[in-house]
Design goal:
Elements lengths: L6 H7 L3 E6 L1 H6 L1 H10 L2 E4 L5 H4 L9 H12 L3 E8 L15 H18 L6 E6 L12 H5 L4 H12 L3 E6 L7 H15 L6 E4 L2 E3 L5 H13 L3 E10 L9 H19 L1 E6 L15 H4 L15 H11 L2
Parallel strand pairs: 1-2, 1-9, 2-3, 3-4, 4-5, 5-6, 6-8, 7-8, 8-9
Helix pairs in contact: 1-13, 6-8, 10-11, 11-13
The structure holds ligand 9MR.
């Protein structure tokens, strides 16, 4: 019997970049992680290595070691590389204190950061999450050190600065805006306004952390279509599917597979060109270590189990993509 083609091949047939967000740790230490990533996925996102904190151990130095490791692996395996994230309110360096800077200095600081990082990966990163999670859960612009200092228009500035040094596609990335929610309306308005003003935004990344709640696939379809109608590319960027520990269905793996299947059907049909999951194996899921999430959510949200065996969710995605 010929072995079934891997996910990567099936997705390529549909013109879909199927990817995983990963950390450098298991890439370095786990042969199974490297093998599964290279065989099954055609896109990779460094989960934290390209964030400002990990990149900048001190005021005057950058450490590109981990970021290079992930990006180089992607390039060596002919993968689409998603850079993540140039501007975020979390994971800033420990030494960084906004009060050390005037507003003008903060502007210059952020511009230099974007120029340095996006410029370094000019030839290797295909798409950048330029701004991550700038919209608060109530739809207002999130108040952060960047919104404070850059007087509200830092999102536009960040895209312009990135555009000065890279030809990569430039994305706005966020959670809670996958389906037709109020937050999605706010993200839509933000991006429509940026486009109106000629700001170089190419796409929107929908994270899709389905934790406890699973956004309705038909609503995702309608939402993706309206972003596409604005002229934006749309990608699913951090998908995982977990259950609240107090509300686990009788057959969680089957329910999880059913939801992955629905998203894998809707995503290419609605015009998404990437489906990226938030890790390769359940062993690497951020849900197992982030804050109180291990107590709140089941910790096996991905396509491969702890031993890198494909789960029902994997088969569901392959089947959904194989059907045309
Ligand atoms: O998956 C990422 C994980 O490896 C990091 O440790 C964590 C903290 O930086 O961030 C994870 O990814 C986050 C992403 O950058 C933005 N959306 C929420 C994700 C989970 O916190």
């Amino acid at each position: 019997m010929t072995p079934a083609p891997p996910l990567r091949a099936v997705a390529a047939e549909r013109g879909l970049h199927v990817g995983a967000m990963i950390g450098p740790g298991p890439l370095r230490t786990e042969p199974r992680h490297r093998r599964t990533l290279a065989d099954e996925f055609a896109a990779v996102t460094p989960g934290s290595a390209l964030k400002m904190g990990p990149l900048r151990p001190s005021r005057d130095t950058y450490d590109f070691g981990d970021a290079d490791a992930v990006v180089d692996f992607g390039v060596a395996h002919d993968m689409y590389v998603r850079g993540h994230a140039l501007v975020w309110h979390n994971q800033k360096p420990d030494w960084f204190q906004a009060w050390d800077y005037t507003d003008d200095q903060l502007r210059a600081f952020l511009r230099d950061h974007i120029h340095t990082v996006a410029g370094r990966y000019r030839a290797t990163v295909d798409a950048w999450d330029v701004v991550n999670e700038a919209v608060a859960d109530d739809g207002s612009l999130r108040e952060t050190v960047w919104s404070d200092a850059l007087v509200g228009d830092y999102v536009a500035d960040a895209f312009r600065w990135a555009d000065e040094v890279t030809d990569a596609n430039l994305y706005y990335n966020d959670y809670g805006c996958e389906a037709l929610t109020e937050k999605a309306d706010a993200v839509y308005d933000l991006l429509a306004d940026l486009l109106d003003r000629g700001v170089p935004v190419d796409g929107v990344g929908l994270q899709l952390h389905a934790l406890g709640e699973r956004p309705d696939p038909d609503s995702i379809r309608a939402n993706v279509e309206r972003f596409r109608d604005l002229g934006l590319d749309v990608q699913i960027t951090e998908m995982d599917v977990a259950f609240s520990r107090d509300d686990v269905p009788d057959d969680p793996l089957a329910v999880q597979a059913g939801y992955y299947r629905a998203v894998a059907e809707v995503c290419p049909e609605a015009g998404c060109d990437a489906l990226v999951v938030a890790g390769v194996s359940d062993a690497n899921s951020w849900l197992r270590s982030f804050a109180d999430f291990p107590d709140r959510y089941t910790g096996d949200p991905l396509l491969f189990d702890e031993r890198y065996r494909p789960k029902p969710a994997y088969d569901a995605v392959v089947e959904a993509l194989a059907e045309d």
